[in-house]
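For practice. Supply one:
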Amino acid sequence: METKEKASGSFFEEAGVENDVIAVGSGVPFGFTRVSNTRVGIGGAYGAWGQSYDNDAVAAFVEKRLGQPLPEDERLNLAELGFRSRHHTAPLSEDQNLVLEVEVGARMLREAARACGWQTPDVEAVVMGMTAPITEDYLDRITQAAGIRKEALKVAVHKACDGAVSGLHLALNPDLPENTQLSENIAESVRGKKVLVGGIEGLSRFIARTRDTNALQLFGNAAAVFGVIPGLTMKFLAGRTREAFDEEGMLQVIMNYPHAARRPEGNWNVEVTETPAHNIRIAGLMHQPSDGSSVIMAGPMGMVKLFVRTGVQVVRDAYRAYQERLAQLGESGKSLAVAVVHHANYKINKLKEKHLHKEGIVLPMPWLLSEFGNVSAASAIIAFLRQLPSLKPGDHILMDGFGAGTYYDVLAVEMGG
């Protein structure tokens, strides 16, 4: 796995990025880019909002948030962790944040549909990962603002950084535990339909409620959405999901969404809720900070401890299931074109790669998100869209999501055409 170097500067300055200013407060910079691959029939959009802070400027940002100097021993080597910039908004009122994030969400849905050659009224389902939605009905608000029909299925997935990959898994794999609890299985109901999948993360707003210096240096705003027709432009091959409650509180995250804050029956951490209004909520239990703050992190080595061992096990199990599926299809020996991994930080991904190599599993895992920071559920979708132009019909790819809670989703899929 190699770091993909880019010219220094903001994401907003990159070729192909369309820039605008959203009229909230004194004006919020917003930029996005569309990606399409007509050979596989998939397109999407990704972007960010707020001021871009490079690694030299982020310390001043953190100190302003804290109201005090950032201790030298708490300054992260962000370049070593794979990041060189991230996006933050200036302090806004709750109403201003709501207007801003609804506008961002609606634009991302419209641009992703446009990248697919779809009209938004043609979209039949929206599956979105969100760590900290600004309002419980956020998905309703952005789909309505984007012009998507009220009757479209809307699935909100709250499993922290795993949200978007978990959402894709839900849309493709009918055997997931969440799907089997529903009156109508999501994967079965969206097969052959136009579906928008992604992650939208207003993390600058969210981390305003923490004094954790690691979180303040690592996280930022971003969103990514792509259009897929399950069973046609993307086909499920094999996958594994796992949860392991973070008893030690290595990564504590407050739940900005409804959850009973206890384990449901069966010692399971996920609550599945559906309403008559075409809405489904997949809500994961989190180890929440006891002081009422939004995030408390154990530090980079704590994140390695939390995610690497179990993450490697889930990837290994999914890879073995994929090999078994290839044998059934008479395609033994076929290799994965790429592995798209959540970009928590470069060291985590590098260690996962190293441990997988020891087990004889060699996966191309390119690092692609240096100018966004950790953007939670949006990260794997941005990485996928950056790989999309090089993919061909029949290519197999691995999607690897993991996040606080802790939650893991890994699935192998075949690109259609």
In short: The two ends are 28 Å apart (CA to CA). DSSP finds eleven helices and 17 strands in the chain. Residues 343 and 379 are 6 Å apart (CA to CA). Residues 11-415 form a domain with the Peroxisomal Thiolase; Chain A, domain 1 fold (CATH 3.40.47.10).
